[in-house]
Amino acid sequence: VQLQASGGGLVQAGGSLRLSCVASGPALDYTAIGWFRQAPEKQREGVSCISGRGHTTYYSDSVKGRFTISRDTDKRTVYLEMNSLKIEDTAVYYCGAPCGYASGRGVYYYGADSWGEGTLVTVSS
User: Fold this and answer.
1) Residue 91: exposed, middle, or buried by beta-carbon count in 10 A (0-12, 13-18, 19+)?
2) For residues 11 and 121, is the Cβ–Cβ distance under 8 A?
3) What's the pLDDT tens digit per position in 15-55?
4) Reduced to 3 states, what is the DSSP secondary structure of residue 86?
């Protein structure tokens, strides 16, 4: 599966952004796709994950209630609607597949460690 993220930008704290991830490849309807982010000098972390058909979604505790993940299977696109943005949400955001969720571990990635270009989200005060 190949993924391309877009939609990042500069936004003030409290504002909103919507990220898009266009997917290509086989068996997309059976592939959970997620959003991950990496802030400067920090490890990449899982943000959200959506199942192949979009019926199940998972969120990290840090974004729950503020971010919404969705997917349009016809357009082969996964979205991340980000509201009430905080300065600590500043990071490069990547989409990755496949993803999963486990209690105590949160959203995780178990692909082949092949990441496409991310999209930078900068939240200012």
Assistant:
1) buried
2) yes
3) 999 999 999 988 888 899 999 999 999 999 999 999 999 99
4) coil
